[in-house]
Amino acid sequence: MHNADLYLVLGIIVAAFAIPAVISAFSDSRPPRAAAIAVLVGGGLILFAFISRPGGYTPDQIPAAFTRVLAWLLNQ
């Protein structure tokens, strides 16, 4: 497993969890401050993963990155 895989997976998870928070904030008519920070952190991790890995990622490689990170976590 590469560190870029871990950054990519964490970034996708953080960004995915931020989406419902953004929707909830807008529906309650309050500013989505924490959700916006989570989106920025998730996007930054994804961008860092793409920059860190030579050649970046293609959409076909993202599930394999999740598999490698999950296997790494289970073998710790």
What does this structure look like?
The chain has 76 residues and is mainly α. Helix content is 76%, strand content 0%. It is built from three helices and no strands. The chain has helices spanning 3-27, 33-52, 62-74.
Compact overview of the structure:
The chain has 76 residues and is mainly α. It contains three helices and no strands.
Question: What global shape is seen?
Answer: elongated
Major β-sheet profile: none
SSE class: mainly alpha
Q: If you average the pLDDT, what whole number results?
A: 93
Oligomer designation: single chain
Distance linking N and C termini: 12 Å
Question: Share of helix among residues?
Answer: over 70%
> Using only CA atoms, what is the Rg?
14 Å
Q: What's the total number of strands?
A: 0
Tally of contiguous helical segments: 3
Helix and strand sequence? HHH
Portion of residues in beta strands equals: under 5%
Low-confidence stretches: none
